[in-house]
Write a structure and sequence with these properties.
Number of strands of chain C: 5
Shape of chain C: globular
Strand content of chain A: under 5%
Radius of gyration of chain A: 13 Å
CATH class of chain C: Alpha Beta
CATH topology of chain A: Arc Repressor Mutant, subunit A
Chains: A mainly alpha (106), B alpha/beta (129), C alpha/beta (121)
Largest sheet of chain A: none
CATH architecture of chain C: 3-Layer(aba) Sandwich
Order of helices and strands of chain C: EHEHEHEHE
CATH superfamily of chain C: DsrEFH-like
Number of domains of chain A: 1
Number of helices of chain A: 5
Radius of gyration of chain C: 14 Å
Structural class of chain C: alpha/beta
Strand content of chain C: 15-25%
CATH architecture of chain A: Orthogonal Bundle
Structural class of chain A: mainly alpha
CATH class of chain A: Mainly Alpha
Order of helices and strands of chain A: HHHHH
Distance between the termini of chain A: 32 Å
Number of strands of chain A: 0
Oligomer: heterotrimer
Number of helices of chain C: 4
Largest interface: B-C, 19 and 20 residues
Distance between the termini of chain C: 28 Å
Helix content of chain C: 25-40%
């Protein structure tokens, strides 16, 4: 875990989205007190794919929807997402997945 | 009635800003409530404190300031649209190491405020050009 | 939470003319995230956003057409496009990045009247 963390903005999101790597994701997760397991990675991959297709970092409502669609209702619900990515799941996932902050709040 | 106005036009392009001001003053005179003027797209340039109008043209900035005072309407400026166009308050300027350019009493806000103002107003009118 | 409103966003500007198109969609996505009942209608040069295989990276800007793909996941209820604008550009039969309903100018008036709020840009 000796990767140096690339520059981040005020909210902890990468300044250059191309700086993202699996190691960087693990570092960013660590700072949020999260140890990434297979369940986390599946969601991170899903959200990165969504962003690659749409240029949108999903807010909570679409996040629940796409996770539910692809990974099932056991993971695709608000409670489980809060458990995996505490705080604000949409923001925490976007930060760890190397995406901009979802545009639904200041 | 409660109104929210949305301004998309810059002070120096099109007549949308001046029309919005006339409309806003008329609303107020007729006893309606102007809750918020939301500045979006190029409209955020209305909040630039460093703009100076030529002496033979109307000074929109001071008209907005007077409107805010007489109506108590909030002059809300979308923070994302403002930042990319160089309209920064002291906090943002400090954080981004730029200079502060936002005029008083304009406030930088998130888009959530536009939604809230839209939800709580009876009428929501956009001034585009 | 107050009752949600029906919001119709009309976009008429071309997808790469300044930041307006992307910013307008940002506002719609936030409204949808706030559980308002949102619809979108593309008119005039805005219809070009529907063409596939676009990438704003070359221009150093966003790709509004890609953002359109996210709308169904935001539960944006209806995506409309002006049939006349498509015809004028010889795009009536074109493949689009997301499925859209073609609306005649006549029906647009009724559509606008039906919504609580209309945003335009």
């Amino acid at each position: 875990m000796n990767t140096t963390l690339p520059p981040v903005d005020r909210d902890g999101h990468l300044r250059e989205l191309t700086d993202w790597s699996i190691e960087v994701a693990a570092r960013l997760a660590n700072e949020a007190g999260i140890t990434l397991r297979a369940e986390h990675w599946a969601i991170i991959k899903l959200v990165r794919d969504f962003h690659a297709r749409t240029e949108v970092a999903p807010a909570m409502r679409p996040l629940v929807k796409i996770v539910k669609e692809k990974l099932g209702a056991e993971v695709g619900n608000s409670l489980k997402l809060h458990e995996l990515f505490p705080g604000s799941p949409a923001r925490t996932i976007a930060r760890i997945a190397g995406l901009p902050r979802p545009k639904n709040c200041l | 009635m409660i109104f929210t106005l949305i301004v998309h036009s810059a002070p120096d392009t099109g007549g949308g800003s001046q029309t919005a001001l006339h409309f806003a003053r008329t609303l107020h005179r007729l006893g309606h409530t102007l809750k918020q003027v939301f500045f979006y797209h190029e409209g955020v340039r209305n909040a630039l404190g460093s703009q100076v109008s030529p002496q033979d043209e109307s000074d929109l900035l001071s008209q907005w300031q007077a409107l805010a005072q007489s109506t108590q309407a909030q002059l809300a400026v979308c923070i994302a649209a403002a930042t990319r166009r160089g309209v920064l308050n002291a906090d943002e300027a400090d954080r981004l190491q730029r200079i502060s350019t936002l005029a008083e009493p304009f406030e930088l806000v998130g888009l959530g405020q536009l939604i809230e103002a839209t939800m709580t107003a009876d009428r929501c009118i956009t001034f585009v050009n | 939470m107050m009752n949600p409103k029906s919001i119709l966003l009309l976009i008429r500007t071309s997808p790469y003319q300044g930041a307006a198109f992307g910013e307008a969609l940002d506002a719609l996505l936030v409204a949808a995230a706030f559980e308002q009942r949102c619809s979108l209608m593309l008119i005039d040069d805005a219809v070009y956003a529907l063409l596939p295989d676009q990438d704003g990276v070359i221009l150093g800007v966003r790709t509004p057409g890609k953002m359109l793909i996210a709308l169904p996941d935001y539960e944006v209820e209806n995506l409309y496009v002006c049939a006349q604008s498509l015809a004028q550009r010889h795009l009536s039969d074109t493949t689009t990045v997301v499925s859209v309903q073609h609306i005649s100018p006549h029906d647009q008036a009724e559509l606008i009247a039906r919504h609580d709020v209309v945003w335009s840009c």
